[in-house]
Amino acid sequence: MDIYLIKLILVHLIGDFFLQPNAWVKDKERKKLRSIKLYWHVAIHIVLIFLIFLNFGVWRLALSIGVLHFVIDALKSIFQTKKNARILFFVDQVLHFTSIVVLWHFFYKGSLNISFFNETKTWVLISGALFLTMPTSIVMRVIIAKWLPDNQPDSPQSLQNAGKYIGILERVLIFLFILTNHFEAVGFLLAAKSIFRFGDLKEAHDLKLTEYVLIGTLLSFGIAIVTAMLIQMFI
C-alpha cells in the first residue's frame, strides 16, 4: 500500500478516535453547525496532515481533506437522530475513508489493486465466512429447537439476540484461526467460553438448559471447524 495513503488513514484514525473527546461529539450532536468543537475537530485534521507529512507543500491536500471532513461531519450532525445514530456512524466512516482514497488518487495518482476480487480463492473464502454467520445460525436453530427448555426459552437477563451474535463471532474466529493454522487458538476460545458460560449454568442448577447450551456450543464449533477445513482443502 502506498505510504501517502497510509499516512492519510493514520491522520483520520488519530483525529477521529484519539483527539476527539466524547464531550466534543455530544456538543456537535447538540449544537450541530453552531458547535465550535466541529470546527476545532476539522482544524485538528488539517494540522495533523502537516505534522505527519512534515511538508507544508501538502496544503492543498490538507485543505481538501478538511473541507470534505467538515461537509461529512456537518451532514451527519444535521440528520442524526437517536434512531439512526448507529447507522450514521458507520456511514460517516465509510464516507471519510472513501474521500481519503479519492483525494489520494487525485493528488498522488494512486490506485488500489483489487485484482484479488477476480480470484476464485477470494470468493470461496467469502462464501465460507458468510455461511458461518446467519445461515449457520438458522440451521442450528432448526436442529436444536426441539431441545429448547420450555421453562427458559429466553433469559430475561440476556441481551437481545446476544447468543446469536456470540455464535457468529465465535464461528468466524474459528474460521480465521484454522485458515491461519492456529488450531491452538480454537482451544483457548472454547476454554474461555466455557469459563464464562458454564459458570452461570452451574449456578442456575438446570440440567436441561446446561445440556441444551452444550449441544449448541459443540454444534457451532463443529460446523465452524468442518467448514474451515473444507475451505482450506479447496484453496
Furnish the topology, listing elements before pairings.
Layout: H1 3-18, H2 22-31, H3 36-53, H4 59-79, H5 85-108, H6 120-131, H7 134-144, H8 162-179, H9 183-204, H10 207-234
Helix pairs in contact: 1-3, 1-5, 2-3, 3-4, 4-5, 6-10, 7-10, 8-9, 8-10, 9-10
Poorly predicted regions are none
Question: Which overall shape is indicated by the principal axes computed on the Cα atoms?
Answer: globular
Order of helices and strands: HHHHHHHHHH
Helix/strand structural class: mainly alpha
Number of helices: 10
Please tell me the total number of domains: 2
Q: Mean pLDDT, nearest integer?
A: 89
Share of residues in helices: over 70%
State the total count of DSSP E strands.
0
Q: What amount of the residues lies in strands?
A: under 5%
Largest sheet: none
N→C terminal distance: 25 Å
Instruction: Indicate the radius of gyration in whole angstroms.
Output: 24 Å
Can you tell me about this structure?
- Keywords: Membrane, Transmembrane, Transmembrane helix.
- It is a single chain.
- The chain is mostly helical and 235 residues long.
- It has 2 domains: 3-108, no CATH class; 116-234, no CATH class.
- It has 10 helices and no strands.
- It has helices spanning 3-18, 22-31, 36-53, 59-79, 85-108, 120-131, 134-144, 162-179, 183-204, 207-234.
- α2 (22-31) crosses α3 (36-53), α3 (36-53) packs antiparallel against α4 (59-79) and α7 (134-144) packs across α10 (207-234).
- The chain is globular.
- The two termini are 25 Å apart.
